[in-house]
Amino acid sequence: MRALTAISYVAALIGASAPAVAAEYKPFDRATFDAAQKAGRPTLVEVNAWWCPVCASQTNTIKATVGAPEYAKLLILRINFDKQKAEWQAFNVTKQSTLIAFKGGRELGRVSYITDKTKIRDLLALTTR
Fold it and tell me: Which of 8, 21, 28, 54 would give a disulfide with 79, using CB separation of 3.0 to 4.6 Å?
């Protein structure tokens, strides 16, 4: 019984220390993107490759940032760089690890192939204005 209580306690501590994710994550599809833009919903398009270390770093920064309440309406749509070539090309993207912020049908900004946490956070902040 004590072991179960200890496990529950540790699980609660781990859960409490993990950042909450306020933003919604979905795989990219054009209909979802178009509906979000028509509704004026802040959206981040993340062009990601599973094998890309820059993408992994960007994802970690995004996850650490979007747990804040101001990102509750943010929709993050991930384009698979290896499988969705037509989709990322439609956004004039030339390489993986590209992040593009949108709101109300307008592109607010983009970054490509960077891991600078401040620049990524600044891009995300554009969606909350």
Answer: 28
Residues 9-58 have pLDDT tens digits of 444 444 444 455 589 999 999 999 999 999 999 999 999 999 999 999 99
Give kind and range of the element (H or E) at residue 5. helix 2-17
**Which class in CATH covers the domain with range 20-126?**
alpha beta
Q: What is the pLDDT of residue 22?
A: 85
Nearest-angstrom CA–CA distance, 40 and 24: 15
Q: Tell me if residue 58 falls in helix, strand or coil.
A: helix
Identify whether the C-beta of residue 74 lies closer than 8 Å to the C-beta of residue 42.
yes
